[in-house]
Amino acid sequence: MRRQSLWLIVFFVLGTYAWITGALAQMPQAPVVEAVEAMGMTVADMERAVLFYSSVLSFEKVSDVEVTGGAYEHLQGIFGLRMRVVRMRLGEECIELTEYLAPRGRQMPVDSRSHDRWFQHIALIVTDIDRAYQWVRQHRVEHASSGPQRLPDWNPKAGGIWAFYFKDPDGHPLEILQFPAGKGDPRWQQATDRLFLGIDHTAMVVRDTEASLMFYRDALGLKVVGDSENYGTEQEHLNNVFGARLRITPLRAAPGPGLELLEYLAPRDGRPIPVDVRANDLLHWQTTLVTRGIASLTDRLPTKTFSLVSPGVIPLAEGQLGFTAGLLVRHPDGHAMQMIER
Length: 342
Hints:
By secondary structure, this protein is an alpha+beta fold. It is built from 7 helices and 19 strands. It has a domain at 120-266: 2,3-Dihydroxybiphenyl 1,2-Dioxygenase, domain 1.
C-alpha cells in the first residue's frame, strides 16, 4: 500500500510538472521589439536628399550627426566609414538618411522593379491624393506607378484606398496613400489643413510570407494585424508589374509605423537582393527596432531566421545616434533590421 501511494505521489508530481511546463510554453512571451523607431535609407547627396524630403514632402529635420570610428564600422559592417546621419520627422514618424562620406557605395540598380526582393518603400499618408500627386509632379519626381490608383471595392480590405508610387532623387521607392472613411488608423481621418500627415508603414517584398513570419512575428513578437490579396489592373498599374498578384501581411509593434510583407504570388521572377549588398549601397534600407535585452538577443533568436551584419551587439557609449547599443541583422530575404537599446 505504501509503495502504491508513493507511485501515486510521483505520478501526481510529474503530471503537475508537465501541465505547468505546457502552460508556460503556451503563454505569450514578451515581444522582443518594443517599438518601430524609424526607417532609414542610404543617400548619395545629403543636401539634395534633405531638400527633397523637407520642401517636397514636408519633413522637418530633427538632428544632423557625423560619426566615425571602430564601433560604427562594426555596427554597419563597413571598414573605414565616416557617415552623416540626418533624422527627419513627418507627423509622429521619423526617417533616417545616411550619407557615407567614406567609403562610397554602389548606385541603385537602374532596372529595379517593384517585385524584386530588395524593394522597400515607405507609405506617406496624404489628405488629398489628387493635390498631392500634382504637387509631387510639379517637383518632377520619377513615376513608379503610371498614376494614382483607386483600389477596387470588390476587395474588402483595400477597396477605396488611393495610392501612387514614385521615387526620391536616389531612386528609393515612396508611396502616397489616402484612406477612405473607416479604413486605416483613425488619426488619418482627423480634420487638418496639412497635405502630408505621417508614415503609415514600410513595405518589403519577401519570397515566402510564412518563412518571413517566423522572424517578424514568432521571433521578434510583431503582431499580425490583417491580410489581403490584391490583384487586377489597378494593382498592376500601381506596382507597374504586369499580372501582379500580391499577398499583403501587415504587422505592428505597439508604437510606431507598421511593417508590411509583400509576397508576389505572380509573377514569381522577382530577383533576390545581391549577396554582396552593403550598408553604403543606395539600395540599402534599414528599419530601426527598439528592443529589450539586446545583450542576449542573438542567443534568443533562431539562427535560421537572420544573418549578422554586425559581429555582435555593439556598445556605443557616446550615444550620438540616440542609442547606447546596436546590432544590424538581415532577414533571409536581405532586408536589414537595426536592433537598438537606449
